[in-house]
Amino acid sequence: MKRTATFVALGLFAASVPFLIGYGADAGAEDVSPKPESASTGTLDIGTTELLDLDLTKVAQPERVLHYPGSDYVKVHFERLVLLPGDYVTVANPDGTESYRYESSLESNWATSITGDTAVVTLHTTKGVASTAVGAVGAQIDKVARSFTPEEMAERDDRRPESLCGGDDQLDAECYRESEPKIYANADPVARLLINGTTLCTAFRVGENNRMLTNNHCFDSTTTARSTEVWFNYRCPTCGGAGVEQPVKVRGDKVFATDRTYDFTLFSVDDFNAIEKFGSLKLANRQAKAGEKLYIPQNPGGAPTQIALNSDVEGGSCRVDDPTFDGYATDSDVSYHCDTEFGSSGSPVLSRETHEVIALHHFGGCPNSGVRSDRLISMLNGLL
Question: Whole-prediction pTM value?
Answer without folding.
Answer: 0.83
